[in-house]
Design brief:
Strand 1, helix 5 and strand 2 form a beta-alpha-beta unit. Helices cover 66% and strands 8% of the residues. With 206 residues, it is mainly alpha-helical. The N and C termini lie close together (11 Å).
Length: 206
């Protein structure tokens, strides 16, 4: 399970970096086009490569700090978007600092490049995240990429949580069973023992 989760994180990070580099190239070409119609572009290919590399490194640390690659399976899409916005804001601020302090190039063209870059990046990454979430939801509904859940307590809270994961299969949770101090008939064979049996149950379910 740990290996699967790490692989999933690497895949998400890989898609984000590909999108980031693609958007940088697109924004760079648009800026070049603007330069050809009357403005002067201060940056060259070597500088572009340096800036893009810096943005990739910054993305890695900002994504880690904002928990962008945390597990969002049972949370609303807005939580992931908020984390994404934090990373993009960090990218924009970093881009301004790099261009202004390293290349003294914060002119009209640089501002336009930054606006184009941030706008396209937000659109494409949001679409990418939505597509990945939809694909994973579909996979989980088929019983793949699931996580086992052991519910402690078969009271109102425990049964409500059970109803939630049953009615939302795309969350990707699979019930192992219930632990409760009192065996309840409605558990239908899902009762595994008392709460004191937690350690033993976890060992047998590893």
């Amino acid at each position: 399970m740990i290996f699967v989760n790490k692989t999933y994180t690497y895949i998400r990070f890989g898609f984000d970096i590909i999108t980031l580099v693609f958007v940088f190239i697109v924004a760079d070409h648009i800026a070049d086009h603007i330069a050809r119609i009357g403005l002067t572009k201060d940056l060259n290919t070597t500088n572009d490569l340096f800036i893009c590399t810096c943005l990739i490194i910054i993305w890695f640390f900002s994504a880690k700090a904002s928990n962008l690659y945390d597990e969002f399976r049972s949370l609303n899409f807005s939580y992931e978007i908020i984390a994404l916005l934090k990373c993009i804001l960090t990218q924009v601020i970093s881009l301004i600092i790099i261009i202004f302090f390293f290349f003294k190039g914060y002119d009209v063209l640089s501002r336009q490049f930054i606006i184009i870059f941030s706008f396209i990046l937000m659109i494409l990454l949001s679409i990418e995240k939505m597509i990945i979430r939809m694909v994973l939801n579909n996979i989980r509904e088929k019983g793949w990429n699931t996580r086992n859940v052991l519910i402690i307590g078969a009271g109102e809270v425990g049964t409500r949580f059970y109803d939630t994961i049953v009615s939302n299969k795309h969350f990707g949770y699979k019930l192992v069973g219930f632990l409760d101090d009192t065996q309840k008939a409605f558990l239908n064979g899902q009762y595994l023992g008392t709460i004191n049996d937690l350690e033993k149950t976890l060992k047998t379910r590893e």
